[in-house]
Amino acid sequence: MISALRLLQSDMRLVRRDAMLFFYLIAPLLLMSALWFGVPAANDVLIAYFAFDLSEYYGLITGVSLLLVSLILGCMCGFMMLDERDDHLIEYFAVTPLSRKGYLVCRLATAVILSVIYDAVLLLFAAPEPVPITHILYLLPMAALEAPLIALFLVAFASNKVEGLALSKGASLMVAVPAAAWFIGPPIKYGFGIFPAFWIYEILRGDSGQWQALLLMLAGTGVHLLAVYVMLQKFLRRQD
Fold it and tell me: Are the C-beta atoms of 113 and 145 separated by less than 8 Å?
């Protein structure tokens, strides 16, 4: 526990010193502000000048924003892990009381906790249309797992921070590609179910009842856990 607190203190100092990491920490707040103020204003303009009602896509916009928050936080944690690997700090943590397992738990738990906090704030206060509390409870477990999934993806495939930056662009496809299912009907759209983010979009469609949303959450959480497990094994093999 003491080792974990020391790691957290070290993280806080690192974020204060590194401008990019600090930006990643505040970027979700900027995104929420744009979502809260910008989307309704854009909708008013589109209706007035183009007779286009953006409100039909509020669920999609909320889903993209939710996943972008997790993407940002996942990249932040992933870059921190890449820095620590480059500096051989992961090997150092492995022989301390924290241990490599404890280090990974702390890193991934940080990503999950930050994601839950930011995502809850977004869904409760910044979404362009109200999201039912039950749906928020279904969305948070999946959205929270997106952050460690992205972090593990970066450290599993990137050799250094420069490669991590390039891969983070590719990671954004995990958000963008399943969004296409919003415009595709069943059964074809379920082919996107291999993407963890797909299940978040499906709940935010708003056309599923409580029990159907629960089933979507269970399926989506299972897909997320499987993806996290695969990325974790890939990372551990690379470390060995």
Answer: no
